[in-house]
Give the backbone structure.
Amino acid sequence: MLFSGLGFHRVTSPAYTKSYSDCVFGGSLTWQRVLAVWLMVGIGAGIAEAQANTGDGKVTPPVLTSGNTTVTADTVLTPQQEKTLLEDEDQILHFVSKDTHLSLKDPVKCRFISREAVAAELRKKFDQDKGAKRMERSELVLKKFGLLDQSFKMRPFLLSLLTEQIAGFYDDKTKQMNLLDWVPIDEQKPVMAHELTHALQDQKVGLEKWGSQEIEGVARNVKEDNRHIANDDTDTAREAVLEGQAMVSFADYMLADAGHPDKTLKDAPQLAQQLESNAGDMSDSPVLARAPLVLQQSLLFPYTSGLAFEQNILVKKGTDRAFAGVLDAPPSSSFQIMTPDAYLRDQPVPLLKLPDIHPLLRKAGYVPYDVGVMGELDVRMTAELFGGEPLAKALAPEWAGGIYYAAQRKSATSAQKDTTASLALLYSSQWKNKDSARSFFEVFEQELPRQYDGLKRREADEDEKDEVEATERVYSTSEGDILLTLKDNTVWVSEGFDLALARKLRDAVDQANAPLGSGPVMQARTFHPDHDLVGGLVDTVSQFGVMKTILR
């Protein structure tokens, strides 16, 4: 997945009837999970105001309001407050175990840490984490696609973002829940419910291995290319499962605390939709408010879409299937997260193949840089950035498969290797119908002037005219040729490769893939996760804990 190296794993931030502006770290501190805090703030405020019951016995869906969500200074918990919370941990842990039907096998250690300690640990882990290193490569590819501005610097921005958002985390290496001593005491318990869900998930499947099975290194041959492609979108899907389940526990705990101990999220199906719509409020998160769209959406996806996925399974199949069942047989792609019925039907996801293009690239002076899936989440974000939200909502469900490949000029200097001018990429996408393919083709083409200064459309050379189709576009840029092709349900994009090589690559990829519906498919639960285009974003950031913006 294109946004894969930037995961936002297991971050939590609670809000009771008060506003909430701090974020919780929710995953391993080596692979800490970052949860968006503004969503949980909304959950807390809404559930605390829920009425007892309506006439039909259902919980009245709470009305979520933002309120004042700005914290101007830290107020550190007293030793007695910390002691009181630690005494409550066992009760909350048993609540979560009963709520999720996940067995409690061992006690969970817990400690309080300061903001300074978290910031120091964050910088340390960010430097050491393999996902962060993978993210650095993804950043350049995202810029080449036009999904990040050329001037954007991912590393310092993410450090600033995570520092703003941190509120607590569960460390799956030390098996310890870390609570932050500046989060108000009445906002700590819902965060504990969220993070203790990760602890029970860890005891069930072992999160360090289950959630971090990315294939390391750059693919160097066709076998490795297709292994990366086959494994690509799974990390994003699994992260959504982990955060979605934890969000269910969070909401159920808030319902119980608001006086509805016999009610759960299953009884208030509208609540998940309200939480998702409220999650876009970043009024108390100035750094996140400045983030590029792909970063904001990558942060939110595991929590909003993960919650919607889990609630769907919960309502239709019950608690055991929604928790233990999904952990034992997780979804394989963002497509299955966004389309829960496809997961329940075990519907296969189209898997495009990449032929052996390495001889062509070597001859042209390129070395491998990155390869992966352009999944449904990637398409949704790309379409929204290029054409707006209505187009994205209409196009994303029509996605039927996609792959990309990035190569770097071998002759590039060290300085040039940090620029998109050193990269060339190809991208092939398939769609369920010709109209959707054409819409994506057109919106992609319309975005090119923003990406490239001096973009110039050109006519084909005389000896190429026989090869040109009516739906082909050729452009010249300072970074090389651009070739766009629309053929039936397939959109082809090449940026940076010279025109002759781009056509050879296009033809090779087309020949390697059978017509839509008859080619190989990616079956759920048959492979280990790697990354997709956006999934790196989803994975890396989520690994650093729960973010306060999800808790609104």
Observations:
- The chain has two domains: 5-307+536-546, 358-519.
- Confidence is low (pLDDT under 50) at residues 5-11, 13-72, 516-531.
